[in-house]
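thought: fold this chain, then report.
action: predict
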Amino acid sequence: MSRLRHRKIDALMQLTPMIDVMTVLLAVFMVTTPMMTNGISLDLPNAGNSVLNGTDHAIQISVDKNGEYYLNEMKLNVDDVVKRAIAMRGENPQLSIMINGDRHADYGAVMAVMGKLKDSGFQRVGLRTRTEK
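observation:
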């Protein structure tokens, strides 16, 4: 009689190579994502030699020359900008906000978003500028 040999098939999936690949992809995306966020094109006002550029951790709110509001590159109305900023503050209470107002933007549009943010409890709200040449 012939005996059949039963082989035990190793059907386990090796997770180590997958984890290595995912770690490399995560590192690549974490390094390249900040370089890809340019925002919208604005003509910032000059403010002498002391410039406020903002930090990488600040929420960037932009007001273009037509008085339209942007949170990063997403076009929103002023109330939605404030609501989203409040939601982001829930995750990071020390969050600061940098308002990028175009040189030709309506002063009232810039101050409207700044006032609503201050009324919502934001303490660190700044206006981004560039140096004079």
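thought: worth noting. The first strand starts at residue 59 and ends at 63.
final: tokens above.
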